[in-house]
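User: Hey, my collaborator sent me this sequence without any context and asked if I could get a structure. I don't really work with proteins. Can you help?
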Amino acid sequence: MTSSIEAIIRRLASRKPMRPEATTQADIYMLLTTAALGLDTDDVVTMESQLADGTRRRIDIEAGHVVIEVKKDLRAGDLTDAEKQLAGYVAQRTKELGGRYVGILTDGTAWRLYHLADDQLSCVSELELSPRDPDRDALLIWLESVMATREKIRPVPAEIKPQFTDEVAGAVAGMVVGRDRMEGV
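Assistant: No problem. I've predicted the 3D structure and written it out in structure-token form, which is a compact way to encode the shape of the chain:
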């Protein structure tokens, strides 16, 4: 299993020019459901989750309270347009389902975590994988912290802080508390 996860992470980090976004989406889905992140296939809605806003807009990957937008290469193109698209998805999910959502913008190599506050999307954490030697553990720890899937961790910034800024730790703690309230924990 570990070699399979490492192969997925290597493919994600490679950022090959001819690689379609759908292939990157599929690799992220496989990573989220096969790595020990506390997610299974029922927890991940992937491959174009329809928004209930009367448009044809679709979220690439959705896991718990996290919306993931996949782009071919975040270095090319307009990052502002991608952020605006992600902000719309996060705002719509927050409105539809209540609770706090965060967004990830990625091309598989660069991973950017966003928090929406007062209708403003802010990048609160970034992780860049080396295409030659991607850090498997760094990505998995980063994703686990963002997804807030570990069991029996106290939802306080001190427990989450080692991986993120204070703002991210607070956002993730708020998501865990909100999830626990919804589940009656």
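In plain terms: The chain has a mean pLDDT of 79. You can pass these tokens on to your collaborator as they are.
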